[in-house]
Amino acid sequence: MNYFIIVLAYLIGSVPFGLVVGKLFYSVDIREHGSGNLGGTNTFRVLGKKAGFVVTIGDILKGTLAASLPLLFHHTGLNPLFVGLFAVIGHMYPIFAGFRGGKAVATSAGLLLFQSPLLFLILLIFFLGCLFTTKYVSLSSMLTAIVSMIGAWIEGDKILFYFLTIITIFIIYRHRANIKRIMNGTESKANIKLFKK
User: Fold this and answer.
1) Taking the CB of residue 27, how many other CB atoms lie within 10 A of it?
2) 135-168 burial, b for 16+ CB within 10 Å, e for fewer?
3) Segments making up each domain of the chain, as ranges
4) Around 33, how many Cα atoms within 13 Å sit in the side-chain half-sphere?
5) Comparing C-alpha atoms, which of 106, 80, 82 is closest to residue 92?
6) Confidence class of residue 192 from pLDDT cuts 50, 70 and 90?
7) What is the pLDDT of residues 128-138, one digit of tens each?
8) Which phi and psi angles does 193 have, rounded to 5°?
9) Residue 86 to residue 11: CA distance in whole angstroms
10) What is the biggest distance separating any 2 CA atoms in the chain, rounded to whole angstroms?
11) 8 A C-beta contact, residue 161 and residue 152
12) What is the mean predicted confidence (pLDDT) over 73-96?
């Protein structure tokens, strides 16, 4: 049962909502446009606000659903955070999209939504504040990941802190190209108008 739940979590994480929404409703493969990434940010840029929100919410819920699997299968021997981590891996390296996936942010947020809804809400506000201040989605994502570890430590949830540390490493690693562009001054800024319309 343990292996089944872990594999299922990975498969859930592997569902490429950006690819599905793009091809099904817009006849567009977003991997061939913008940054080539399957996540919500590139979907916003390539397909617009509606598609971007749908993909982002779908990617978040992947993490929440995966973390819920031990409860759904009445298998409390598995830590939900451990199971959810495989959904994050599936999101980054999806078997359904040639192992070219997103950058771990939204699905990780879904994992946090399951474990600590209050911290999720605080970090969402922090992320939006960073985004509207810096206009950089990548920088806002990395800063929010770092702050998430601090939040977990303040909450006194050491297990969550350890998992968020692993996830933060994932997120920073997946954004290594963005870091170089930020340092070079060539990183694309978010079109905040997309969020206001």
Assistant:
1) 7
2) ebbbbbbbbbbebbbebbeeeebeebbebbbebb
3) 2-196
4) 18
5) 106
6) low
7) 999 999 999 99
8) -60, -25
9) 9
10) 50
11) yes
12) 93
First to last CA, the chain: 46
Structure tokens of 24? 């099904």
Q: Pseudo-torsion of CA 174, 175, 178, 180, nearest 10°?
A: -90
Residue 104 is which amino acid? A
Q: What is the DSSP string of 25-85?
A: HH---GGGSTT---SHHHHHHHH-HHHHHHHHHHHHHHHHHHHHHHHHTT-TTS-HHHHHH
Q: What is the pLDDT of residue 34?
A: 83
Angle at CA of residue 132, ends 22 and 26, nearest 5°: 10
Contacts 24+ apart (CB under 8 A), 190-197: 190/41, 190/44, 190/131, 190/135, 190/136, 190/137, 191/44, 191/45, 192/131, 192/132, 192/135, 194/44, 194/48, 194/49, 194/52, 195/49, 197/49
What is the SS3 assignment for 99? coil
Q: Cβ distance 85 to 162 under 8 Å?
A: no
Yes or no: say if 110 and 59 are a contact pair by the CB < 8 Å rule.
Answer: yes
